[in-house]
Write a structure and sequence with these properties.
The complex is a heterodimer of chains A (258) and B (248). By secondary structure, chain A is mainly alpha-helical. Chain A is built from 14 helices and 2 strands, in the order βαβααααααααααααα. The termini of chain A are far apart. In chain B, strand 4 and strand 5 form a beta hairpin. The termini of chain B are far apart. Classes of the chains: A mainly alpha (258), B alpha+beta (248).
């Protein structure tokens, strides 16, 4: 059991420094000592305790965080709500706490941190900017699950906590898409295989561009939104509008329904 | 350049929409849209939707149908970190969800009381003065020697039109002013836009320091349109007559 804490400004700076350094020295150990060091962090009054530090999927990460903040009660939940708060170091502390899941080391002990990766892990003191919040590896999944629940969220929140695939970027970066229930149902139907347990690798659908790709789907939806109230349409109505390139079930001779 | 419209969609004028924020405690703010669709030729059974958005939070409110527009009981926007979320109003065909009319990206205009705070002060033999304070904007100072003068219709009729001319002129003819989302200047321009139905004329391409005479005239005409629209809306002349019996 771990006490819920938040990084202070010095803690956030130290965490950012580690991320910069670890890009040059990928075998560096994360500064987990900051998590409990009173010089770099402090307890969140009223915060619930955390159990375990391993997350197997994005969906699980979101579930753990929703549960954590639910157990912590409304004042803590409101204080650290990514849409309203100034962060105050909680989301950075959580990223460091779960860092082995968010940025796992390979067999050689090397972590692969991308350039300009701070926003994936660190939430500065100050409001989340619209172009940052969804990219944070914990905040994005948390917001999606809190809004939609697990059934609608499981498509977007597929993969490991450290995954950041283009399908997620194209949807989560657009409020008009990730907040739209009908779209999420369709997204799941199009891009997941028949038993709906894993990402579908059917030809073209995993690519960045081209017929059936997520970028095409996003373009098509933006066109629809000029003419239709897409947010008010369910998945069946939306599917009926889609061009043939997205009718994968027909295309691949699988179950009807498109 | 006018935009092309291939959808036959009706553009709902800004003047048909009034956005109000009602307060019932800090966390119980409600957004109410007052809508006027009488002259737009929309089908009676079309659905009316009001949507608010701010920093990734989106809320949709069902306002009934065109022939019976009804704000829903729950219009709460407590989760927004602002009193001025971006608001869209959409009228939709109930059968195929085609958009029949829309107005996007509206923001609530501040009320006159929020735009122009009134304070009493020792002004000697003058009755009122407009004082610009940064970063909060104009304040209307009123003599403290005649208590309540600012509440009279006579005061409104004589002071408010000139106050608006002065504030809007100060903003729009200021070569240093740059538009921004949350500034007091933007709030006043929104106020004027709602009165006239149009944004004010833009500056010359070379920048505000290069105003051409024609453009300055166009801005002054826009300001005058806003002032007249305010006077009409609030019946300043009629109210003055009622207040004084029509004589000075």
């Amino acid at each position: 059991m771990a006490e819920l804490r938040r990084l202070n400004r010095a803690g956030v700076d130290a965490f950012e420094g580690f991320i910069d350094d670890a890009r040059r020295e990928p075998t560096m150990s994360p500064p987990f000592s900051l998590l409990a060091d009173p010089a770099y962090s402090e307890a969140v009054g009223g915060g619930a305790a955390l159990e375990g530090a391993r997350l197997r999927s994005k969906l699980e990460a979101a579930e753990v965080l929703v549960d954590l903040l639910n157990r912590s009660g409304p004042p803590v939940r409101k204080r650290f709500d990514p849409a309203r708060s100034d962060n105050e170091g909680l989301w950075s502390w959580l990223s460091l706490y779960f860092f082995d899941s968010l940025c796992p080391a390979d067999q050689a002990g090397r972590r692969h941190i991308r350039a300009s990766a701070h926003y994936r892990y660190v939430a500065d003191y100050g409001p989340f900017r619209a172009n940052r919040a969804y990219r944070h590896l914990l905040v994005g999944p948390y917001r999606i699950l809190r809004r939609h629940g697990p059934e609608l969220s499981k498509g977007l929140l597929s993969g490991t906590p450290s995954d950041y695939h283009d399908h997620y970027e194209q949807v989560a970066s657009r409020n008009s898409l990730w907040t739209d229930e009908g779209f999420l149902r369709l997204f799941y139907e199009i891009y997941f295989n028949e038993d709906r347990t894993k990402w579908d690798a059917r030809a073209g659908t995993g690519g960045r561009k081209g017929p059936g790709s997520i970028r095409r789907l996003q373009d098509v939806f933006q066109q629809f939104a000029l003419t239709y109230d897409v947010r008010g349409m369910d998945a069946d109505a939306l599917r009926a509008l889609l061009p043939a390139e997205f009718h994968f079930q027909k295309k691949f001779g699988k179950a009807a329904g498109v | 350049m006018p935009s092309l419209n291939f959808t036959n969609r009706v553009d709902i004028p800004a003047t048909a929409i009034d956005l109000l924020i009602e307060y019932a405690g800090t966390d119980r703010r409600q957004l109410t849209a007052q809508l006027e669709f009488d002259d737009l030729g929309l089908p009676a059974e079309a659905l009316v939707l009001v949507e608010a958005q701010y920093r990734g939070i989106h809320k949709r409110f069902d306002y009934g149908v065109v022939e019976n527009v009804q704000p829903p009981p729950d219009r709460g926007i407590a989760e927004f970190q602002t009193d001025s979320p971006t608001v869209s109003v959409t009228v939709v065909d109930p059968l195929d969800r085609r958009i029949l009319a829309a107005r996007r990206n509206l923001r609530r205009s501040k009320s006159l009381g929020e735009l122009l705070p009134v304070v009493t002060a020792d002004l000697g033999q003058t009755l009122w003065r407009l004082n610009f304070e940064e970063p909060s904007g104009p304040v209307l100072e009123v003599t403290d020697r005649i208590p309540g003068i600012e509440t009279t219709k006579t005061f409104h009729a004589f002071v408010l039109p000139e106050t608006f001319r002065s504030v809007l002129g100060t903003i729009l003819l200021d070569p240093e002013y740059e538009d921004g989302d949350e500034t007091w200047q933007r709030a006043w321009i929104d106020f004027g836009t709602r009165l006239t139905g149009d944004e004010p004329p833009g500056p010359a391409e070379e920048g505000r320091g290069e105003w051409l005479q024609a453009e300055e005239t166009a801005v002054q005409e826009w300001i005058e349109g806003a002032v007249r629209s305010f006077a009409d809306k609030h019946h300043l002349l009629d109210e003055y007559r009622r207040d004084t019996g029509g004589v000075l």
